[in-house]
Amino acid sequence: MTVSRAVELDGHIIDSGTLQTCFTTIMEQGGTFEVESFDIGKSETDESYARLSVRADTEDELKAIIHELHQNGANPIDPNNATLEPAPADQVVPTGFYSTTNHPTDVRIDGEWIPVERNEMDCAVVVERTPAGARATARVLNAIEADDQVVVGETGVRVKPPERPRDNSGAFGFMQGGVSSERPSQSTIAKIADAIIETKSSGGNVLAVCGPALIHSGAREALARLVRTGYIDMLSAGNGFAVHDIERDRFGTSLGMNTETLDHPRSGHKHHIYALSEVIRAGSITNAVGEGLIGSGVMYECVTNDVPYVLAGSIRDDGPLPDTITDTIKAQNAIREQAHQADMVLMLSTLLHSVAVGNCLPSTTRVVCVDINPATVTQLLDRGSDQAVGMVTDIGTFVPMLAEQICE
Amino acid sequence: MTVSRAVELDGHIIDSGTLQTCFTTIMEQGGTFEVESFDIGKSETDESYARLSVRADTEDELKAIIHELHQNGANPIDPNNATLEPAPADQVVPTGFYSTTNHPTDVRIDGEWIPVERNEMDCAVVVERTPAGARATARVLNAIEADDQVVVGETGVRVKPPERPRDNSGAFGFMQGGVSSERPSQSTIAKIADAIIETKSSGGNVLAVCGPALIHSGAREALARLVRTGYIDMLSAGNGFAVHDIERDRFGTSLGMNTETLDHPRSGHKHHIYALSEVIRAGSITNAVGEGLIGSGVMYECVTNDVPYVLAGSIRDDGPLPDTITDTIKAQNAIREQAHQADMVLMLSTLLHSVAVGNCLPSTTRVVCVDINPATVTQLLDRGSDQAVGMVTDIGTFVPMLAEQICE
Amino acid sequence: MTVSRAVELDGHIIDSGTLQTCFTTIMEQGGTFEVESFDIGKSETDESYARLSVRADTEDELKAIIHELHQNGANPIDPNNATLEPAPADQVVPTGFYSTTNHPTDVRIDGEWIPVERNEMDCAVVVERTPAGARATARVLNAIEADDQVVVGETGVRVKPPERPRDNSGAFGFMQGGVSSERPSQSTIAKIADAIIETKSSGGNVLAVCGPALIHSGAREALARLVRTGYIDMLSAGNGFAVHDIERDRFGTSLGMNTETLDHPRSGHKHHIYALSEVIRAGSITNAVGEGLIGSGVMYECVTNDVPYVLAGSIRDDGPLPDTITDTIKAQNAIREQAHQADMVLMLSTLLHSVAVGNCLPSTTRVVCVDINPATVTQLLDRGSDQAVGMVTDIGTFVPMLAEQICE
Amino acid sequence: MTVSRAVELDGHIIDSGTLQTCFTTIMEQGGTFEVESFDIGKSETDESYARLSVRADTEDELKAIIHELHQNGANPIDPNNATLEPAPADQVVPTGFYSTTNHPTDVRIDGEWIPVERNEMDCAVVVERTPAGARATARVLNAIEADDQVVVGETGVRVKPPERPRDNSGAFGFMQGGVSSERPSQSTIAKIADAIIETKSSGGNVLAVCGPALIHSGAREALARLVRTGYIDMLSAGNGFAVHDIERDRFGTSLGMNTETLDHPRSGHKHHIYALSEVIRAGSITNAVGEGLIGSGVMYECVTNDVPYVLAGSIRDDGPLPDTITDTIKAQNAIREQAHQADMVLMLSTLLHSVAVGNCLPSTTRVVCVDINPATVTQLLDRGSDQAVGMVTDIGTFVPMLAEQICE
Hints:
The structure is a homotetramer of 408-residue chains.
Chain A: E1 3-11, H1 18-28, E2 32-39, E3 48-56, H2 59-71, E4 75-76, E5 83-86, E6 105-109, E7 112-117, E8 124-130, E9 133-139, E10 149-152, E11 157-159, E12 178-180, H3 185-201, E13 206-210, H4 213-216, H5 220-228, E14 234-238, H6 239-251, E15 253-254, E16 257-258, H7 271-282, H8 285-290, H9 298-304, E17 309-312, H10 328-341, E18 344-348, H11 351-359, E19 366-371, H12 374-381, E20 387-392, H13 395-407
Parallel strand pairs in A: 7-9, 12-20, 13-14, 13-18, 14-17, 18-19, 19-20
Antiparallel strand pairs in A: 1-3, 1-4, 2-3, 5-10, 6-7, 6-11, 8-9, 15-16
Helix pairs in contact in A: 3-13, 5-9, 5-13, 6-7
């Protein structure tokens, strides 16, 4: 016995790889298919349309296949509404809940397709009925409350993976090439600079996600310059990043080493404790800047130029700054807000914070990921952003060259 | 004008490198010295003694040199007590506070040398006078309270870096060789197995610090076996480690992939959310084991065999288990307790948690660090444990081979 | 003005990605296209057919696009013969020579399509007319002689990139998944073992390409066992690999370290010089085995079991064994012979030799690439083999586990 | 029964670590010792002297210990001449031959200590008696001829490991810090620039060892500038480096990619074959420059500025340039000549060629090693140069920043 179900795809389904993915998915999962209808776009601007009848031996296998197809933009042909079930308890999802991808998604409620707001991957979709109509929102497990109406199954859910852009002549054209470890470094940096400038000139927001290696490697002044000149709109980092940045301002050192002379001055290893201690006494970084305790650097420029920052605490910290969010749930929520406001994200030599931000990003956000470890860059690019570029390079030379390229 | 001060060293100061370090430190910092007295141990069991007169151009330079010498076990010759100053506020240290190394340290209070308890690096030393006498304790910045009596300067502080052991014939003899990336893998694993067995048979505690790669790479069953057979006494990990371990038990997958067949079963990507959701419903991992929800794996063996664990939350988590400590300060304190109880620490493919544990370790604790990234191993071994060995290998083959070696 | 030309594709052009590649290639190169004819395979076993009219602004641009399409399996519709031009001198190609891909290729000579023999990438195609008919052979630049008839341009050349196999249930099904660094190690090794067994049981040849790290890491005995039991048919390595293997046999050390006890016995650092010296005196490895000088190890098993080996010299060598080919051109030719005879290639922790072998492989050969450096694995897999799998792991644990899996 | 033998050490044996190494060596090898005489230098400029009586249980064990001590600068107290034995055949050493370290070494012949010329590690010492007196030369195994008088045993051999320099205030002061991956990049580059300038201004020779990644990453113009301005005196590279450099000049591409626009122009993948083909036709790189075929780049500047280069062939090459030495023995000999003439060596993103050069270097040559892979840098620095510094960074940003620092 065979069971079957029809799915349909439309858009630039050939060059975006959607049709290919569907064919291979069906075969890998042990199903078969028949192309019931296929209308190929005659030229590169025309869209195509395909309707496939997917077959499997059992209902269960068919469901598994349809599930995968659905994640990849082949939507079941059905006019049915999404199925809703109440969450059984706080932070508990109903069995069979629909788990989101990071692609734009609609759900069908009362016969209408409505977009899922604040979408990111691995969330449940909660539907609320308001006087103004139904609203659907992606929610992480933490944020699920008992009796929330949660979408279950795949019926009435429509996913639209971003299509390959028709035009790659702009600054972002190069952003589809994956990891670049053997590419010309200076030219790649120039392309990234162009993409930042284009993002800013079209009114977009740039979020910089920064690891402490940025300070140790001497890139602090260049990043401060980018903040000061308005190319960074938000900053996400760990407590250590801010402590080292402030240590550098107060004592000229980073982890006790003078980043210019490479000397280790006396008592240098205490500097980060002093830096922490002084900001704690002042009450906040803003206060410390106000009192004149801090007069330069990334955090100084953030305070002075009203660039909002999120500092997340970590189990490695010598102690939290007053500004640091030590609860990881609260820190994640603050990061989530930043991620949803960003049009372009620079991930600068931090795996932990980059993954945290990346988890919250829709697949349409532009991402540049820079690290000296190729495994880190590969891991971050694997998370499925559509317009992402990775560069395996030294953050200590990258940021100064980028700042020079952008600001001059 | 020249100023000078005498310092003395004793013990196995030649083969432990102490004397060499002192000579080079003085020269690097621009000072000069005269050996006032030197008594070399005639044979390998005799101790040596040296007294140096250290000279510099200014009092400030001299202080800087003495400071460095002091960190390395050359103690100023003075019968003076340590200087104490009150902490000006909570989490604020007095200027010039003595910042600890991770070596055994004494402070001189009321004419007596007393050991600094719970010592670890980058702490302040707080002295309390009790009816039973003075006590000195190392405290992280977080734990400093206003008016705590804090040691400042170097007077009355004595550091004893661990000496090179006289005998390296035992299981730990090999643990002074730094990172091993071109060493024979199976033989090195056999040596590590011996060291664990020896630690256990002499009544020591073994702490395993575990990253999620351990589960993804299929080493879960082998680690569970080590817990079950009593070779792991404590476990330190992140929320993700436990979630993936439980996902594997409930659904046979890790991050959605079946770790045996390498298939990606239907809906696999939801499994970790379900695993989380079910434990939340049960109230704790222990409850979930009690209810029979969890029947195998590392966390199961921990619960069943009363092996205490600390799960720290992270900004990357899809959501915390009820057992997870989401506040990083509280999590660090829990990790600190584990670190101080451990006689041997296995750092298994996690940089974040290994650094957190390593920060709290005295230099006398034995450390084995295993990661596939050589930079991670180097960074962890640089933190100054005296009996530490690193191995650059695949955690997915290392743990099974280790378990086989130990348990058979 | 616009110029245009028709190309056609057939086969499993959707799920193999061919059609997608063609669409994106045209757009990236600034061309446009019209689908003149499209016949989609109705089910997963049917082939599809597409004919595109490709347009560009200038003849030069059109040529560039057609060139790229051609490399990817879209062949110009023309009944013309390939154009031949004589090579102007030894090792010199005529301008516009056709440079091969590593995919199966035909050229049209005297109205007939004939296959290019011994095809590999970056070669010229030389056509010879023999009494038995025309023959076409791929030749590296080195091998071109003055007046050889060399194919120029793309007319009369047909490329067939391998299609996605219809069935991935067998041992090789998993070999399309790229690099596996977070995959379960033991299960992946089991899959590789299955693929080797299947290759052997279907009469195929397995070529092992080995780096010296294999010996240092203690995997020598396991590899020797695979040679002895007949799972390795050919071996390709450098001089150093053989020297260290023989050093281990003669002295129990590798680079002076005892690979079992991890001791460095007296004079260990001279062992590799002695090993070299003794084989030189014997005249060859075979002689040294015959004289009983060598009694175990990889080279011993190769000699004893008639497994042919190629040892290439390197500028790093302490000195060449009599068996080592010190001329790089001759060594490359010997490697080329091996590569063309292999049905499956194991690349074991050597970038240099793996690239050398990989350069000579057609895209249809199965490749397993194992290295602890993820960048090495990525670089090797990028070379375009169609059935290739990479694993980031420790060669010192990989080979023993593989041998156990295969031989037991 | 115990056997014993006296050894002596002098110089800055404490701060150079020599005495420490000797103590630990004796203990690790199971021996004991008595300090018979010890005269410590009273101040940092005074030398020290130690005479130890080393004891072991058997003559064999004692020999093993003395052997190790000897390698580390503790010389047996004996007035005996070195023992000479004839080499039994070409490329065959007598049993017990003395294998060199890379430290300055003397041998005692006819009652006189004479220096070993052209010393490098893993060589035999061949003594020739000439009318002008005896001469001792280090010879690789290849260069040994039957009946050469070869030093055997340790008698009459004296090793002087370089001492820690008394002054580290100059440009080379920083060159004792090992690998720098978390150090400030720009400041480290400035230090390296100073060291190059100092080497040149004191009449020294700078050898650049270059990998092809240097061209791919876009650093070609900067390196060409350093050659043109006289900061590079010799160049060592592989065939591929030169081919890609010339491809860039002829076609604007490297491996087919335009290193400025990042485009892949039509037929780009054939460019390196054309580049090769054209130089072959011209007969040599010099001819090609003379004919105006090559007008820019590293090889062009070498030819134009009479900077000698060695190009070694490899089994990876698409074909050798006429200038390339394809025999690895001959290539190694050419590299050896360069290495012995160099006062400072820059190892730029090539493991293979850097190891080849490093093998031939005495321990007194200054070495800077730059690579993006930390394992490569660690491996190269482990080879025992005394004044070596490693930097983990991107060669594509490093060379341009270095050239700017030096030339402006």
